[in-house]
Amino acid sequence: NFHLIDYNMLVFIVIILARRLVAAIVKE
Questions:
Q1: What is the pTM assigned to this prediction?
Q2: What 8-state DSSP symbol labels residue 1?
Q3: Rounded-to-integer distance, Cα 16 and Cα 14, Å
Q4: Considering only CA atoms, which of 21, 25, 1 is closest in space to residue 13?
Q5: Would you kindly state where each structural domain of the chain is located, as residue ranges?
Q6: Can the keyword Membrane be found in this entry's annotation (predicted)?
Q7: What CA–CA distance (Å, rounded) separates 17 from 28?
């Protein structure tokens, strides 16, 4: 269960970082 939770958190963080990166590119 812990491994699954870590995996979900990792995916969640990656999605947030990707959205921030896209937002930064769009602003430029």
A1: 0.60
A2: -
A3: 5
A4: 21
A5: 1-28
A6: yes
A7: 17
User: What is the reported pLDDT for 2?
Assistant: 66
Tokens 């969640």 locate to 12
Residues in the chain: 28
Q: How far apart are CA 21 and CA 3, in angstroms?
A: 27
pLDDT, tens digit (0-9, with 9 covering 90-100), for 1-28? 567 778 889 999 999 999 999 999 999 8
Q: Which residue intervals of 1-28 are DSSP H helices?
A: 2-27
Amino acid sitting at position 2: F
* Six-digit token string for 3: 């491994």
